Every structure is written in C-alpha cells, then in structure tokens.
Amino acid sequence: MNKVILDEERLRFLYLEKGLSMKEIADQLSISIGTVFNRCKQYGIETREHSEVFTFKGKKHTAKVCRIISKTHKGKVLSDDTRKKISDAHFRGGIGHKKKRSDGYIAVYMPEHPKSTKEGYIMEHDLIMECSIGRWLAENEVVHHKNEQRDDNRLQNLELMTASDHMSYHSRKRNQEKRKKA
C-alpha cells in the first residue's frame, strides 16, 4: 500500500489556493479526512467554517442560514390544528401497524391491550399465542420461539412456557454449548 505524503506545500495549495474542502482533498489523495485535519493543525493552517449545504423547503441553504431559520421558529406557539397536522404527518400506520425492533422482535401497535407499552405496542408472538389459546397470557407465562428466530412468529414455531421453564431451557442450552467448545 502506497502511503501518501501530505506535505505543507501541497496542503496549502489544495486547501487554500484551490479552495478544496477537506473531504475533497481526502478523496483525491485516498486518505482520511482526519489526516487532512490533523495536517492543517500541524502546519498551522487555519480551517474554514463548515459550509455544508442543506435543503429546506426545496431551497438549498448553508448551515449558517439553517441555524437562523431554526432560531426564528423556536418558541413559536402552534395552534391545536397545526399540532394535529404535524402529528399526523409523522405518524406511520395505525391499529395493527407492525414494526421490527432493534432486538429483532416484531411489535404490533395495539394501545388498548392490557400489556401494551406506553407507546402502545405489544409483541406479535404474544398476540398470536393469546389468539391461539383464547385468553390473555398470565404474568408467569412467556412465548418461546422454537427455532430462536425472533421474527418468525408462525404458530408452529411458538411454544407457551412458564418463565422459570424458559430460563431453565436457555440455561441448559448455554451449558451444553460450553461443554461442546471445551
């Protein structure tokens, strides 16, 4: 791998005379932006203001203009109608709307469910099991995924267990895997 040398003369030419951004210099020389920044500090080259361009209401604005626009709108009192319009614009789905959580489980929007979160979601595998057995799950009951794929909520892949049985199952499985590795 060829190491690119970024000497002071070259950096001054590209950054100050040609007016390239640190990103453009880094891309051109196949080095990191951090390296360009560090060399600027090392050689005493004063860095420019961040000048990214943002699109706001269809028009392109610099970061400075965006900060000015933001300040003018902060603290404004909105009517209930305007708040409702903003809320409706951001809301996706409705009753029964599904989302995949970061831990891999599927959550369903059902705010009226007794075990729903404060956001109104309940785990899909819990709902499927409750429909199958015809009652709410008890406090000590959990739904286990047989194939251990958290988003596979087919009824044949789900098993109703007590919380202690579920913990024992996974504890035994971890111990078996440790023995296999040893």
Overview of the structural elements:
This protein is α+β, with helices and mostly antiparallel strands and 182 residues long. Among the domains are: 8-42, no CATH class; 98-181, no CATH class. The chain is 43% helix and 15% strand. It has a three-stranded antiparallel sheet with strand order 3-4-5. It has a two-stranded antiparallel sheet with strand order 1-2. Helix 2 (22-29) crosses helix 3. The protein is flat. The protein starts with 7 loop residues before the first helix and ends with a helix.
Helix/strand layout:
Layout: H1 8-17, H2 22-29, H3 33-42, E1 53-56, E2 59-62, H4 63-73, H5 80-90, E3 98-100, E4 106-109, E5 121-123, H6 124-133, E6 141-145, E7 158-162, H7 163-181
Antiparallel strand pairs: 1-2, 3-4, 4-5, 6-7
Helix pairs in contact: 2-3
Q: What share of the residues does DSSP label as strand, in percent?
A: 15-25%
Shape: flat
Oligomer: single chain
Q: Give the N-to-C terminal Cα separation.
A: 40 Å
Question: Which features characterize this protein?
Answer:
182 residues; alpha+beta; three-stranded antiparallel β-sheet; 15% strand
Provide a quick synopsis of the model:
The protein is α+β, with helices and mostly antiparallel strands and 182 residues long. 43% of the residues lie in helices and 15% in strands.
